[in-house]
Amino acid sequence: MYLKSKYIPIIVTITLFLIMFVAGSFLYTGFFSLQVLLNLFVDNAFLLITAVGMSFVILSGGIDLSVGSMIALTTMVSASLIQQQGWSPAIVIPLVLVMGALFGSGMGAIIHYFKIQPFIVTLAGMFLARGLCYVISIDTITIDNAFYTTVAQTKITLPGGSFISISAIIALIVTAAAIFIAHYTRFGRNVYALGGNEQSALLMGLPVARTKVLVYTFSGFCSALAGVVFTFYMLSGYGLHAVGFELDTIAAVVIGGILLTGGVGYVLGTFFGVLIQGVIQTLISFDGTLSSWWTKIVIGLLLFVFILFQRILSERRAVLKQ
Amino acid sequence: MKTIYKHHLFWPLCVLAALMLFNFIYSPDFFSITLQNGHLYGSLIDILNFGAPLILVAIGMTLVVATRGIDLSVGSIVAISGAISCLSISKASDQNMLSLILLSVLMSVGLSLILGIWNGVLVSAVGIQPIIATLILMVAGRGIAQLITGGQIITVTSEKYSYIGSGSLATLPFSIFVVATVLLIAALLTRKTALGMFIESVGCNPVASLMSGIRAHSVIISVYMFCGLCAGIAGLLLSSNVSSADGNNAGLWYELDAILAVVIGGTSLNGGRFYLLGTVVGALIIQTLTTTIYMIGVPPEITLVVKAFVVLMVCLVQSPAFRSAIALRWKTRHYPGEKEISRHVS
Question: Which residues in chain A are contacts of B138 at CB distance < 8 A?
Fold first, then answer.
């Protein structure tokens, strides 16, 4: 029973997702189909990618508030380079990915070497990225580049007639890669060790500095990639894209059962956390009578329940250890 | 001389003075104040008037930060409080009834107190990290505000209500008096009673203060309650100033500005000490900065970039690691003992 307790949060998350999906299928006609399930990935691809990056940050005991602004900055930079400067997407996409990674590693370096709370540094990063969007332009830049419109409209048909978008596939690949990195590589173990106890990790001789900077680099890279996917989704660059998105991301990670104090949880949980948010939105849109702001309230409530639950679990574990 | 230099208000006031000097050089009538129809007009009055909600929220935030907490939900509380009072006023047939205004103001204040208590209970009794505990209300609160307003902007046409945010008393905007009252009460309670020391001691070490007989839980709850109250009053000021409530945008980014004001004012985010006056100066710096940027004619959106650099610089200066890194460059002739220790410790 003791050994199993670490799986309880993720089992609860998965069960909750299944219950919601099954309940939706009983309540609304047309809900129970593969397409509805696939649409969860299609519509939440960017959330999934960002949340995966955020999982690593939170597992390492930090937090990254700059992700939403980073997405906006990526859409803005890509849109202005492609639309106004006429650059090729083949150059622009790698460029923005590198930009995101550099931005993240810069924040990570400040957090580690100057020992400032991650909350404040990434808050400054958030202001900076959002502000840079407006320096580029305060208006929406629409993208009509052939490559972007093609990617946006491509539907990969699966057997059975349902389809999935390229963005969704990118998101699934990122998730799979992240699960591999988190659980089967040295870097992943370092992240867990760092989140468990930074002091012990250091005394054990783990490369704390490198791990910490890399974690934020990865998160920056993920949010830039999410920005690219978001650009496919919106086909425009705008400084107000993804406002408040960092909170959705943190909510997804928490609902997925990753402990906010760091060191405990699974990337797979985040995956289901994103799906739960997607299902809530789908349920509300299927219902039709509920207004969309109920989404926020329900997500807030779920956050509350999960945090409370984690709290009780971690307390019980502390008692058991004694 | 050294005591002046070492005073915690020295650097914030220097920054404020530098900003004002810049404004004065840029537009010489910056300091001019004119009297028209019994009201004082001028840039300085505007800064105080428009800065009033931010100052209020930041005062509440200061006490929360002093207990090593943080309250992210203030922006949402601002929105909820404005929405509730505007909704109840807009439903009435006679919007100028004094009892109605008082009742709706009381309702807003009461609700924001309850929301503050909710945050405090989550932090102290349940023991959730403050960032996360208040994140719940930040996410859900915006939804609640939108639910109250029905996703619309509620407008009211009540002169008595708009007096709170845009009326004037003794030639000065009424909002300034509201802020002054709250500041005075907070300063008296924390500096003339033992409460301030309790708050600081809880911020240093909640367990130790509990063992020395301080009710850490009730201190934390009351601090969040006060923060909620301040945010609620700020919501009243904001919504009555524009005579409308907007569930979507009212109080957006307020939590960040308030935290910035607190940090600029010299209150450390690690808790354990706080400076109410410093916070007020910090909030005034932010408001003056915004005014300056508007005045120069730079797109106001660039405020964010400037703010980012201000946050970063303030935090870097506060960080002991950064200061010692700088200091070590000057002290090369001494044996760098600190470096030797820090290599093993950090």
Answer: 247
Query: Cβ contacts (< 8 Å) between B315 and chain A: which residues?
Result: 114, 116, 120-121, 124
Enter the tokens of residue A131.
């502000």
Question: With an 8 Å Cβ cutoff, are B305 and A138 in contact?
Answer: no
pLDDT at residue B318 in the model: 67
Interface predicted TM-score (ipTM) of this complex, two decimals: 0.72
- CATH number, domain containing residue A40: 1.10.3470
Tokens of A108: 């990570």
| Mean residue pLDDT across chain B | 83
| From A60-74, A155-169, B12-26, B308-322, the region with the lowest mean pLDDT | B308-322
Q: What DSSP element (H or E) covers B169?
A: strand B168-169
Closest partner CB to A301 (pick from B140, B146, B346): B140
List of domains in chain B: 2-297 (1.10.3470)
Q: How far is B307 from chain A (nearest CA, A)?
A: 7
**What is the tens place of the pLDDT at every residue in A83-114?**
888 888 888 999 999 999 999 999 999 999 88
Domain of A132?
A: 2-321
Across the interface, whether the CB atoms of B146 and A293 are under 8 A apart is answered yes
Contacts of A251 in chain B (CB under 8 A): 135, 139
Question: Which chain B residues touch A130 with a CB distance below 8 Å?
Answer: 304
Q: How many domains does chain A have?
A: 1
Nearest CB among B132, B137, B322 relative to A260 is that of B132
Distance separating alpha carbons of residues A270 and B149, to the nearest angstrom: 33
Distances, alpha carbon B262 to alpha carbons A47, B30, B57, B131, B230, in Å: 32, 26, 10, 16, 14
B168 DSSP 8-state letter: E
Question: Given an 8 Å threshold on Cβ–Cβ distance, is B316 in contact with A301?
Answer: no
Tens digit of pLDDT for each residue in B31-42?
777 777 767 777
For residue B118, give Cα distances in angstroms to A89, B53, B67, B251, B254: 49, 22, 17, 19, 19
Q: Quick check: B223 and B64 in contact, CB under 8 A?
A: yes
